[in-house]
Design a protein that fits this description.
single chain; alpha+beta; 3-stranded antiparallel β-sheet; 10 helices; 11 strands; about 30% helix; globular
Length: about 350
């Protein structure tokens, strides 16, 4: 008669047994490698964790075409007797106000690196290259990632690199008599998916020395509201100018003709005036209110009165005070300006 098999002795399974000395050493080595890997510097300057920030020099004046299309022949010019700007298109057209989103994004990455002490104004060999993921830029700018979003990003980079800028505006006490582009170099990394299609992994751009110097030495980079990217082109420019002029609750005024030039619109003055009138009525500009003060007309005009001589006043909206507990949590017993230093907390 066959003897039944002897049941195995109860004990620890293989997974429960303590590892042998070689296995323990191998696991410890792997653990040390993982910890060391977590301490290695990130290959990306993204994601952006702070607020979007901008350099006041390129906010105060018209450097970008106000439209979604990129003209290939149009040249932008501005000259108020003190500041001179000339912007010419490259082979892919001139950079637009929507292309400027990428410049704001890079400026914001710079501000983060300044805050962390990774950039120094006196560095003899500054690293002007920034590497980021396209997805993070789309997230910050509120852009759709579907369809041909990545193709549009590559076109944006081509326009920023091809656009030719000439200006007498100095950055950190230094200017340039030559012509520069917003981006000196572009490098994109991609991989092939299962369908052998290209997928964008990262984007590396080298920012032009003129703008890099301006951002690096601007101790009060301006903080943008999150809703900025929802504004139309003219609204964006009005918002930027008001921020660059440090408009407060006391208000700031400018003649409509000068404002028309500072915005950089190609539309007629009366169309610009009508736009401002509508903006005055619905006050849809974020953070600021706009008021128009037309001069008295000595003689009757046929049709609607013109806007010549109109004074436009910007006024910052009063901010609701924070609850005392929240103010204390934010450390606002000694508040700074809204923009704050570039090296301060966002």
């Amino acid at each position: 008669m066959a003897r039944p098999p002897t049941p195995p002795k109860e004990g620890k399974t293989a997974s429960e047994k303590p590892p042998s000395p070689p296995a323990r050493e191998k696991a410890a080595t792997a653990g040390r490698a993982r910890r060391q890997k977590s301490l290695l510097p990130d290959l990306f300057d993204s994601p952006l964790r702070g607020k979007v920030r901008g350099q006041r020099g390129i906010m105060a004046y018209p450097f970008f075409h106000l439209g979604k299309t990129a003209p290939t022949r149009e040249v932008l010019r501005y000259d108020d007797g003190q500041v001179r700007i000339e912007v010419a298109p490259g082979p892919s057209g001139i950079a637009t106000i929507y292309d400027k989103d990428l410049i704001l994004y890079i400026a914001s990455l710079m501000a983060e690196k300044l805050r962390r002490g990774e950039l120094q104004p006196d560095d003899p060999k500054p690293d002007r290259e920034f590497t980021f993921t396209a997805h993070d830029f789309f997230r910050v700018a509120g852009r759709d990632t579907a369809g041909k979003a990545y193709d549009r990003l590559l076109q944006m980079l081509q326009r920023l690199q091809g656009t030719q800028v000439r200006t007498n505006i100095e950055m950190a006490g230094e200017g340039t008599d030559g012509v520069f582009s917003w981006i000196d170099a572009v490098n994109t990394r991609y991989r092939r998916n299962a369908r052998k299609e290209k997928e964008l992994v990262s984007v590396s751009v080298t920012l032009c020395a003129w703008l890099y110097r301006g951002i690096l030495n601007d101790t009060r980079l301006l903080t943008f509201a999150d809703e900025y990217f929802d504004l139309a082109p003219l609204e964006r420019r009005l918002y930027e100018i008001a921020k660059a002029e440090d408009v407060d609750e006391a208000g700031w005024s400018i003649g409509i003709e000068d404002l028309h030039a500072r915005v950089g619109t190609r539309g007629l003055l009366r169309h610009f005036g009508q736009f401002l009138t509508d903006l005055e009525q619905n006050q849809r500009l974020i953070e600021f209110d706009i008021g128009l003060h037309r001069p008295q007309q000595d003689t009757p005009r046929r049709g609607r009165p013109g806007y010549e001589g109109t004074i436009v006043t910007f006024t910052a909206r009063a901010k609701a005070p924070l609850p005392r507990r929240l103010s204390a949590a934010r450390g606002e017993s000694n508040p700074e300006t809204e923009e704050g230093p570039a090296t301060g907390e966002p």
